[in-house]
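> tool_call: predict_assembly(chains=two)
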Amino acid sequence: MTDGRRVPGAEARNGRFPGPSLVPALHAIQDRHGWLPREELVALSQDTHRPLYEIQGLVSFYPHFRTEPPPRVSLHVCHDLTCWLRGGDEQIATLRARYGDDADVELREVSCLGRCDTAPAAAVDEQPVQTGVAESLVESARAGQPQEQSRDASPRRWPNDPYGEGDERYQVLRGLLAGVVTPDDLVETLTRSGLRGMGGAGFPTGKKWALVAGQEAGPRYVVCNADESEPGTFKDRQILADQPHLVLEGLLLGMVVVGAEEGWVFSRHEYGPEADVLRAELARLRAEGLLGDDVLGSGRRLSVEVFVSPGGYILGEESALLECMEGHRGEPRNKPPFPGVHGLWGRPTLINSVETFADVPVIATRGARWWKDQGHGDSDGLKFFAVSGHVERPGVYCVPMGTTVRALLDLAGGVSDGRDLGAVQPGGASSNFLGPDGLDARLDFDALAEAGSMLGSGALVVMADGTDLLAAATNTLRFFRDESCGKCVPCRVGSTKAHTLLTTAMAGAGLDDAGRDQVLELERTLRKTSICGLGQVALGPVASVLGLRRGGTAARPQPRD
Amino acid sequence: MTATADASLPTRTVDVTIDGRPLTVPVGTTIWTAARDAGIDIPVLCHDERMDPVGVCRLCVVEVGGRAYAASCVRPCEDGMEVTTTSDEIERSRATLTELLVADQPAPEADPKQTTTGDNLLLGLAARYDVAAGDLPRGGGRGTDTSNPVIAVDHDACILCDRCVRACDDLQGNDVIGRSGKGYATRISFDLDDPMGASSCVTCGECVASCPTGALTNKPIREIPIRPRAELDAVDSVCPYCGVGCALTYYVDRERGAIAFADGRDQPGSQGRLCVKGRYGWDYAASPQRLTVPLIRRDESYPKGPLSADVRGDARSTDGQQGEGRKRRRPGGLVPYEEVLPHFREATWDEALDLVARRLREVHAERGPDGIAGFGSAKCSNEEAYLFQKLVRTAFTSNNVDHCTRLCHASSVAALFEGIGSGAVSTTYGDVANAEVALITGSNATANHPVASSFFKQARRNGTTLIYVDPRADKLADHADLYCQLKPGTDVAFYNSVMHEIIATGLVDEQYVAGRTSGYDALARTVADYPPERGEQITGVPAGLIRTVAKVWGEAAAGIIFWGMGISQHTTGTDNARCLIALCAITGNVGKPGAGLHPLRGQNNVQGASDSGLIPMFFPDYQSADDAEVVGRFEQAWGSRLPSKRGLTVTEIVHSILDGSPSGGPGVGAMYMMGENPFMSDPDTNMVRTALSALDFLVVQDIFVTETAEFADVILPATSYLEKDGTYTNTDRRVQCGRKALDPPGDAREDWWITQEIARRVGLDWAYESPREVFDEMVGLMPSYRNLDWDVLGSTGKLYPNDDPAHSDGTVVMFDERFNTGDGLAHLVAAEWLPAKELPDDDYPFVLNTGRLLEHWHTGSMTRRSFALDTIAPRAEVYVHPDDARDLGLVDGGMARVSSRRGEIELHVRVSTREARGNVFIPFHFREAAANLLTINEIDPVGKIPEFKFCAVRLVPRDNPSPTGASA
């Protein structure tokens, strides 16, 4: 029996349905039938004494759930920015011509699949695939012989990994459990290192850990946010695939420091292969006694599980993520209270992103100074970037924090086909566009903010000269419109109205001054009044492009979560 | 009523500056509340103070120094916070938000709210910010839902403020409405996105009441248009249905002389909530079947007897075997006027009243005081109940006055008088908020006391543990932390077993038992024989669960018990209630907040009618009718000689008609029936039919021709509740004023006026000019009502006892120091479990339970004439467990024939997982399938209450009687 009202500011809906999440039960029904038959939902409601509307709210909110029988083959194609830049619309048109009327194949345009390095991206029966080869997979799936995708089996090594080939891993965790290092020491090291949250908000990591550790006694939880879903963003996917040991060690260190027994990796639905890698690593940890009821004789219980998202970008917003884990619609909470104080099931909860956790072991091993020295100039540490769009070698790069946009672009082989640069989004779909005059901007939290954009989700999206930037920005707006949870008015209605205004104008005579003013007024309202970052940034890229056209770098301040 | 835990803590405060004004507010106060209290208006759409805030409309955003604005409805004040509630930029944001919402709305001239009550909050804001649809691209096309008979849904007008969602679950606990879909495609939906009318919605209308736009609106009833409130007359009154006594306001269209709609009104108990009956069930008064002139039975219609085929009991003979002339009842199930009215002729009031007075006097002269009896009604006002009993007692020197309390809580009241010296509740239903544990037993409260049940559900949501003990797993079972599905008629064994465990585990409140009770040792000896294993054997409730109940109850700092007819309507009804009293007393759970005994009263004025003396053993305020001192006092007050012995009860009066007076003389020969319909409400209908036919004289005073009226010599047309003033006392002991909303039809007259006219004609010198005068006289004779007068009751009423009604709402928790018994102690009375009188056997293998539906009231004479209620629940059904249905060959929606040793009815089958196997349930509202043709005429020896909750029946499919079924 939760009484959310005892915590000032906690909303009514927060913890509204007492009892365990129904999401696992819904997954079980869907696993059994391939979809969710009504009779099963009614029976679930009766058996659990939970209202039907609660079930309807979940089933209709999460794209993973189906209320009708599945098609023989599902073909999902991404239509977001990077794929759009790489000819996605034409590919979709081709596939639609081929499968549009095919009763066996359900062709759906979906939001970013997180495979922007192989854009345009698709998924056949949830298996990620390049759109170009989708047809052959569809045909083999139709024939009942799904093709196994070959995976790069050898993980790449990255400079944030303190462990060499053959080294014993999890040494920091062992040291912490054995008392060689104290939690306070570790927090102190993190604080001095200047490590900030790599999910985009940049909150100082040491401070966050100390805050959660300092909450009043009682259960607390730790969650690794592995739900990066913003167009152009796939660096965490690479880290999960290559460094599951660092992600999990960071997570476990966080659990020991804040005193949590239970932790989760909240993994986006589309990262099935990466979740498998994590599960294999967790099995190894259990076998080694690093997970269990009495870890290495420390008397400490540590349990970590992978929680697979039922789908939706909004769940990357940490309070929406918590709502989802509690079994509710993934609608962000009004804040404060923040999760560090009032998180999962109303308990203090430490949430960091994949990259943040993965950086902790090396900092603990080599020290705060070492980490600070990795950055360029005043910047601290290393930074992973996903580079995609009009670029020669799209992929994930780990560079010193403070590297310039130009240097990263060069590392990735420059603008594809030797074209000139039109613009970049340095921090994913929510970041303001920077024109060619922004190439010398340094990739760091404060430097990018000064330059009129943000570090965001660590995704550099490159657009060659000649790209219709307003159309590109409108593409990102569509993403935010599609991914809006619908909870608050400005985001739900504003993103829709603005998108209609823009697409109508672009299909006709273009955006006139009155239309421009309307869009800018909507941008201001969304930025100032939306509950969460999604709504606050939804119109930002559009506004920044409208500003670029007038000669400024940006039309608005870049909000930061 | 504040929680005791909070009261003892000093309130911490924070200092905040709002619009330059320094304020100090308690920790946790939202910015919006702090601003409002300081006189600063911040616009809202999604916020409603009765609900927890959600902060979704964003209209209330304010500047607090962050990068984005904060929603003031949900953001708490913080120390040192500087808040700006208005600026050009903030107002621009509000204007833009309003514009966004208006863009998809129906045009104002087509808006469902603006064209009815005219109070669309969003359109109000649009005017304030001077925005209109048209500037932004129009969306919408989300559709409408008109599947509910009285509520219309327009999804385009919906702004997803979640008020209806919270009204439905946080306030009413019905849990039907939620958000469906995501993003711009999000809609409110019912259950699994079902049409509202097909969903589990119970049509309480709380969603409509809370909706700020035209998304949820009331539909007109009986084609009375819903007009802006300002054009209608607002009459503050009280709901006429159940004992919860919710405060409401009727909006009366004077041009049309009709009610247009009703709204809940704030009052400390009901807090503005209503259920489907209160909000939508008032149109019975506008029925064309209302009686409008006095009627006298035609000479040729003697000898008396039932007039309609149904009441004769010959309409139900098997089809096809009785020839063509046999008429099957049409659907609808009301008294067929065309069969009954030809037997009566219209008369003037003078002729009718003179005839009544003459015949009553004649029978009184022939048979003496024992020959006269009166049934008053718990639907009439306190004043009418008082005058009715005063008439019978003073004019005929008879205490033969009773009413349907006999059929509901008589056994509870008997046990309560014996145990704590008072029949009224020891605390209010709202006090459940302070309880650590609430035990609800023998009560389908979501149907019978819907608004009270909303407080139980809400308390549970806020941390109160809910224990539900009932043979039927009705909706409260879904909300209970612990649910015990005991076998019918095993309550004593269950509670003895719980008490056994409480004693065995040392959870008895020794100090309370020693200081405030007597009889503990005998109780302990009795319950010693009921270890949980034996409890399980008798009740079917697992011993482990019995132990858990004992532990949870015994360890709670405050426990409260609510009960209903499932406790009282048994031959062991008094014993059942004794057990509940003992359970509370041995754990110290009477006389403190969040603890106590609350028998949930059925009728809107069953508490008041009993208080007013409408019972054979008590004068007003429970002053004993066989106590010479009391008799003397009332003889002096009333200036009349009074009887010195108790009168007969409802059930005894029926026996007396047939068998003569219990004292040996002639039995009851003439009856005055004010608003009662014993033909339908009393057990063993066949016996009642014989008795009513045998009366020398019967006058029925009612608003419709009832089944009982078919036996009448004279029928007097009374006013409905809506057409008169009066006070009514609810289950909480709250005395409230019901106010006249409509003019009576034709020549119908107030009940109190009619009673007074009869009194004058039998020689009494009454000259009351208004109910107010009657109330003043009553209060003078009723110590419990002291200090009350009509004016002080105001619009929200007062609880009694009340030492300072000008300033206090009255006493919530009674007996905090002593009980009302002679020695001030609670008298614990041990009870041994006894089986019900008619156990199932091979011939009649099922246990029949009877009760009520949410939508209907008692014999249906009001609710079956209500458009909403009759549309939602139009027919009689027998509820059968799916496995039993399968074994019997019964299908959902098919017809079954249900028979007992006393009668047989046919009705539809409802397959229901809420029944236990071997048990069936039939609501008793439906005369075409009257459950009381089946019930047994066995009564509780103390409370004289019939065993409506238990008799043996058999079922067969009607259309395809199974040879393998139980029928021979």
